[in-house]
Amino acid sequence: MSATAASASGWRFHRPTAVPAFGTAFGIAVAGLSAIVLIPIIALVLKGADQTWASFAAAAFSPRALAAYRLSFGAAFLAALVNLVMGVLIAWVLVRYRFPGRRLADALIDLPFALPTAVAGVALATICAPNGSVGQVAAAFGIQLAFTPVGVFIALVFIGLPFVVRTVQPVLADLEPEVEEAAALLGASRWRTVTRVVLPAIAPAAMTGFTLAFARAVGEYGSVIFIAGNKPMISEIAPLLIVVQLEQYAYGAAAAIACVMLAASLVLLVISAAMQRRLEREGADR
Amino acid sequence: MTGPVLARRRLIAAGSLATLALPFLVRPAAAQERTLLNVSYDPTRELYRDVNAAFAAQHKARTREDLRIRMSHGGSGRQARSVIDGLEADVVTLALGGDIDVLAEAGLVAKDWQAALPARSAPYRSTIVFLVRKGNPKRIADWGDLAKPGVAVVTPNPKTSGGARWNYLAAWGWALAQPGGSDATAQQFLTTIFRNAPVLDTGARGSLTTFVRRNIGDVMLAWENEGFLAQQEFGADAFEIVVPSRSILAEPPVAVVDRVVQRRGTAALAREYLEFLYTPQGQAIIARHGYRPIAPEHAAAADMAKFPKAELFTIDDVFGGWGPATTKHFAEGALFDRITGGAR
Amino acid sequence: MRLAADTRPALRDPSGIAWLLIAAALAWILLLLVLPLATVLWEALHKGLPRFLEAVKEPDTLASIRLTLLVAAIAVPVNLVLGVAMAWAIAKHEFRGRAMLTALIDLPISVSPVVSGLVFVLLFGAQGWLGPWLQERDIKIIFALPGMVLATIFVTLPYVARTLIPIMRRQGVDEEEAAATLGAGAWTTLARVSLPNAGLALLYGVLLTNARAMGEFGAVSVVSGSIRGETNTMPLHVEILHNEYDEVGAFSVAALLALLAVVTLVLKVWLERRMQARAGVGG
């Protein structure tokens, strides 16, 4: 693929040579992605397809698998939703306000990335267990956190937090203050300014963050198994089911479940990409 | 424009960081030595630490050769799978005969591996016991008490843990032996137990953490040796061991991985290593770690006194071996799946 | 760098609301982030510093630290190059299939770590496609360093590109076009215009990649074979120590990882400040 070939598909600014090295960058990107992501994934799909439909369906759509998908996708969605709200809020606070401990708080946001998931799982399980610091409080209200689907949700909220904050933060920081000032000068209330000017501007980024948090949570393994309970039909996540199949030497069944999860993730990513584009376009029209 | 300067500075910073990290990355060159890789299941860490030290010392005394025995521990099924996938194990010491059967099917281990060493290639034995909290507040004395309302049973998941399969089979074997016992009553019994299980950890060690540290459950099903070890680690007053009237005789097997030792030229050494487990010294170490030796006369009397008498049945007696047991109980859609509601 | 936006009257929120939002954010961070971190550190240190140091100096632990650093030292530069290339292609150019490529980059995040390990087992395992061929030539990928590096690269692939793309897109291509007009080559444009402009995001991406590379558990555990002292990275070693009832040891290694992460984050903050100071002097 060369820059000239690419230019045939139409440049945004109709200046094909303005930004150089498209061919090289595209080449490296595609080669790297193919070698590291695409080929292994294709191997997986082929493995999943290398069985009769009946055996594929038996593994991928058994009641137990369906319950696991429900838990994995449901808890991931709820967690991502919470992260969307809290992430935007935290990003806003970090960018717009100056208060003691701001830098510390800012740096801490990355902790879920930095803390190995297994360690996070052990730490969260320790905290949320009925004899843990938070678990005790919850237990006093008759709520059990660890070893229930609630535990899964907590772990997923933890690992997903940085995604929304970190995608929204730079956009918020780069937002031209003039636009907000203009809106304010034109008599818009602060609330109106925020909802009509600021939120639409950060919406694509927030959407990206939401999707990433969601997608990552769906497949999360390390932090969840420690706190989930792992009971079939109740608190067993889909990735654990893959491990279970592997440990019975059922590569085909493992690949089948993996394929379903993969397909679902792909659909989600495509939807989010489309939404992002729409939001960007709307943002540009404004 | 500050860009270029910054870019260069950043490069320098990154470069110096990388340089700083280098000394950590360069491994000291290993001295010439022979190695064996023993791929084992989870609870044998402490056992093989001692076995390896003793065997390496003996080997050194005899041949003046340094021997390093490398260990890999994990769930039994997962370890077998790793060996199939190419983990270069000279020997496997797993929880279930079924897992070595799978290696034999894959052509890694001789088909008649069970005849290769004495006592059906199981140099140590164990059984399944109950761990209960101090004072046994729920008064759990035998398997039947596990099905009582309000008794929460902690066990790992039989799908991922070899020990949990022994737990399951022990319970099934007990239920069958009850008056009027049949497959139907056994299934009913196990359904109740698993309904009473608050957590199914992936491995035996995870279950113990749940039971001891998280304070969840009233009784835990455990390997006998794990029970001893837990009492040692967490204090004998933390919980008590209850021996059920009837339990299973677990025979964790060992085998040489022929295909690997042929390639690595370690066949004789690997065999010697496994045979060491049957020597008086090996048997004594085994008993010290809470496994039942097959030759009790070599073990210290104090170690032997730990083992309570119980009626033990073998998997061959009740289930006809690992093959039939796996097909009937643990395969996809088989009894365990039906018991936990995961299969139609 | 402009000053905090809230110093401009028109952008100031009522201080009650501002403090409420700050309090909510801080409470959330405290509960969700600080508490687990504190738990890890407490569990590691409550038996005293000597126990912690003893646990860290254990040979198998040192081996796991070395291996972790080595894996990161290979995976991070590879992902830096790939990430910049992907971001450059996607953010600064328009081409057919751009959305496809963007989605592909996100794929490793949405693929379960377990699956990320599984795909390499299916490819390179003894039963896998290339397994027999590799075995004939005695090349070890799975259960050895190459497999662990591959799995790590796979898992951490998106982070550099992901952090670069939004900021590169927002900045547009004006400066690159100007550079091109002035006769700058591709490399010069990239090194002197685009990357410095995206400086913080790039740095953040690298730090993130590094942190994830060092902390990856699921994928690496599938391809590691967990041979003690050889193929155990620090996160795997945490699990092993945990399974040996060595809680202090397990949390010591965990705390070390957390500490490593904290150092990384401090480094990030420090660089951020230096850049701001520089920009302040320059502008």
Could you walk me through the main structural features you see in this protein, from its secondary elements to its overall organization?
- Helices cover 78% and strands 0% of the residues of chain A.
- The longest helix of chain A is centred in the last third of the chain and has 35 residues, at 251-285.
- In chain A, helix 3 packs across helix 14 (251-285), helix 7 packs parallel to helix 12 and helix 9 crosses helix 11 (190-219).
- By secondary structure, chain A is mostly helical.
- Chain A has 2 domains: 1-8 and 22-50, no CATH class; 54-285, MetI-like fold (Orthogonal Bundle).
- Chain B is of the alpha/beta class.
- Chain B folds into 2 domains: 34-122 and 251-278, 3-Layer(aba) Sandwich (D-Maltodextrin-Binding Protein, domain 2), CATH 3.40.190; 126-249 and 314-339, D-Maltodextrin-Binding Protein, domain 2.
- The radius of gyration of chain B is 23 Å and the shape is globular.
- Chain C is mostly helical.
- Chain C has 14 helices and no strands.
- The radius of gyration of chain C is 22 Å and the shape is globular.
- Chains A and C meet through helix 2, helix 4, helix 5, helix 6 and helix 7 of A and helix 1, helix 3, helix 4, helix 5 and helix 7 of C.
Number of structural units classed as domains of chain C: 2
Distance between the termini of chain B: 70 Å
CATH superfamily of the largest domain in chain C: MetI-like
Helices of chain C, by number, come to: 14
- Provide the CATH architecture of the largest domain in chain B: 3-Layer(aba) Sandwich
Protein structure class of chain B: alpha/beta
Unreliable residue stretches of chain B: 1-7, 19-31
Rg from Cα of chain B: 23 Å
Q: What count of structural domains of chain B?
A: 2
CATH fold name of the largest domain in chain C = MetI-like fold
Number of strands of chain C: 0
SSE string of chain B, helices as H and strands as E: HEHEHEHHHEEHHEHEHEEEHHHEHEHHH
- CATH topology of the largest domain in chain B, by name, is D-Maltodextrin-Binding Protein, domain 2
| Helical fraction of chain C | over 70%
Judging by the overall fold, what is the CATH architecture of the largest domain in chain C?
Orthogonal Bundle
Topology of chain C as a string of helices (H) and strands (E): HHHHHHHHHHHHHH
Radius of gyration of chain C: 22 Å
